[in-house]
Amino acid sequence: MSKTSSPEHDNSQRIGIIDIGSNSVRLVVYVSPMRIPVPVFNEKIQCQLGRGMTETGRLSPPGITMAMDTIKWFARLATAMGVNQLDLVATSAVREAADGRDFVARVKSETGHTIHVLSGDEEALAAAHGVTIGVPDADGILGDLGGGSLDLVELDNGNIVNQGTLLLGHLRLMEDSAGSVLAALNIAAERLEEISWLSNITGRNLYVVGGTMRAIARIFIEQTGYPLHVIDNYTISTPDALRLIHMIAGAGPQTLMRFPGITKKHVETLPFAATVLGALLDKASPEKLIFSGFSMREGYLLKNIPAANRKQDPLVNGCLSLANRTSRFAINEQELTRWMDGLFIGESPLHKRLRYATCLISDLGWAEHPDYRAEHSFYRVLRLPFAGLNHPERVFLAVSVFVRYDGDPDSIFIAPLRNLLDDQSFIQATRLGLVLRLAYTLSGGAPGLLEGSSTRIENGRLKLTLAPLHGPHSSELIERRIQAVADSFGLEIAS
């Protein structure tokens, strides 16, 4: 696998987006020009600009006051954070309201910033690009649910095929249905009939984004006892999702407030967001529901990312960036992979990619306390804010690094996540961790010390060849770690 060029930190900049939605106003500040810009700040205020629009056709007066105060505050924060470029984007509420242009003009007058009001198509496309940043081959339908609208995009292995926007946001639906979940279900089903191509999705995937969708994902994770609390690429079957959606839609405020991370404002509209999601699942009949941690904001940022960076593997790019920040001696990951290639002949392309990524981040725990290095590294890798990997792949990386830091693969510490990996992947992750542990024992993580040496399987035995510069290696520690590698492969050690 060829080496991906490292991010140029000298050319990095901070880009901020103030996202003015129907329900909330959010500021996210990213470090760019990475393949996946890293958020260094993310905060929102629920202003509910779109509240009451069903009746009045205008933005909520209290929402306008709160939104203006929030935008001014966020603009000051962005300046203090050294943001090089601050974009203001508005979606359904400002787009549809009779006084939307007046609001845009007021923001310009009082802050000096111009709002880009996205059309429905622009919003849908940006959301689709956001999802495909992390899942380049996404196949099925994207649903981006906001307070005022539902944006739908059909994706064919990452390529946009169809798109549409419906006035079916969770805040708008609550008002259109006069607060009746049953009426909301009928309205949602009727409006979804406008999208004729939804039947194309049967048996494929439904990808969903948006703050309320993330809240629903947290409830799903809590209710199912799912062991990994990472929303991006959290996947659930359609029958299981529908069962939980019916529970949310029928739950009262007191029940919903018991779920972690659910605010009072969530409680009011959450049953209607669940109703939209349930109606969409019923209509499209996908095989799986997949929650995305990336959204319209990241898709909108694509225009600021160099074209060459967009073609990079998002996982590898993220691991490269982390390695540049955390490694002690900058051992070359290609030096590591070449040194062990002879042990992994015939591995799948997936495992080869994960091995390369693991080598990149295999030294991230060096500064932790030795007694907790394995555990801290395991959790850090498991929860990395990276795209381009699903939950089993996260566990693969985390197990490999855990074992690299002398963690026991049979430990009850990692047992809750064991079932997210198939048996072969777990074996490969364990082997990789043991091989990395041996590599760092021999090299100390310093570059160049593995050059001229190799590990390989020869005549059914493990063969370790050391370059003369290593000198004699007969310590008990090294012998024990060589034996552990041999045992993991079911091999004897060649003399």
Task: Label this structure with key terms.
495 residues; 3 domains; Hypothetical protein af1432; five-stranded mixed sheet; 21 helices; disordered N terminus; single chain; six-stranded mixed sheet; Nucleotidyltransferase, domain 5
Walkthrough of the structure:
This protein has 495 residues and is α/β, with parallel strands linked by helices. It has 3 domains: 9-117, ATPase, nucleotide binding domain (Nucleotidyltransferase, domain 5, 2-Layer Sandwich), CATH 3.30.420.40; 121-294, 2-Layer Sandwich (Nucleotidyltransferase, domain 5), CATH 3.30.420.150; 313-493, Hypothetical protein af1432 (Orthogonal Bundle). The chain has 21 helices and 14 strands. The chain has helices at 53-56, 61-80, 92-96, 100-111, 120-134, 170-176, 181-192, 211-224, 238-250, 253-257, 264-284, 296-301, 307-310, 314-326, 333-340, 349-361, 373-382, 391-404, 415-418, 423-443, 476-489, and strands at 13-20, 25-32, 38-45, 85-90, 115-117, 140-145, 150-156, 159-166, 205-209, 234-237, 288-291, 454-458, 461-465, 492-493. It has a 6-stranded mixed sheet with strand order 8-7-6-9-11-10, sandwiched between helices. Strands 3-2-1-4-5 form a 5-stranded mixed sheet. It has a 3-stranded mixed sheet with strand order 12-13-14. α8 packs across α11 (264-284) and α14 (314-326) packs parallel to α16. The longest helix is centred in the middle third of the chain and has 21 residues, at 264-284. The chain is elongated and about 85 Å long. Mean pLDDT is 90; it is low at 1-10.
